[in-house]
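Progress report, Aim 2. The chain analyzed during this reporting quarter is listed below.
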Amino acid sequence: MNLSICQNPIELGELAGKKGASLIREAIQKRGNANIILATGTSQFETLKHLLSEKDIDWSKVTVFHLDEYLGLPISHPASFRKYLLERFFNFLQQLKAFHLINGEGNPEEECARLGELIKQHPIDVAFVGIGENGHLAFNDPPADFDTNQAYIIVDLDHACRLQQFGEGWFPSLEAVPNQAISMSIQQILKSKAIICSVPDLRKAQAVKDSLENAVSNLFPASVLQHHIDCTCFLDVDSASLLSSTKAIT
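Predicted structure tokens for the chain:
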């Protein structure tokens, strides 16, 4: 894993967005199209913003999947990740080859199967991800399932995860945060050719330390990124503040 330590979230977003854009262009140049995964949440604000500002990406050749969505939450809800991506990303693009959003309002088993078949047909070139305060990757909370070969799974959200969602202001109370979600699995994320991991903010510092400096364990789900052949983790000085050693790149 490569680390890029940035001064602030804006610089983090710029560097992560630039690298991601380069990978998308490279895929289009080599194969004629690109398949990507987008994450949501406050950690992705600046990365997605900069990705949209990058020039010369032919978005009409890009197919997008996303990582997770709450069960039973309508797309009109402020915390809906479908709503997030529409308002912060898709609505700014005139053309996009396709985007496959997770619908958590119907039959979750059928939705997992539907998306699983779709993503089999679209090998992922680059995944944009983050790390949760509890060390989760997507909504794979500890102890995460490292073994399933299903692309999308139904997961239970632990207390720390639900507390983070409430703390970030997405829900009016902790009780309002759903208990379950559909999440892309760990193994599916690892199939991505490249991974861009954006993690700003002091509240993520312990999770960053646990994920980058501990042995790989499903108790620290994002630690599995240590095993990926092409993963770059973009941190700011706050999220990197507890690391015992760093390898900065620019």
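The longest strand covers residues 194-199. The radius of gyration is 17 Å. These observations will guide the mutagenesis work planned for the next reporting period.
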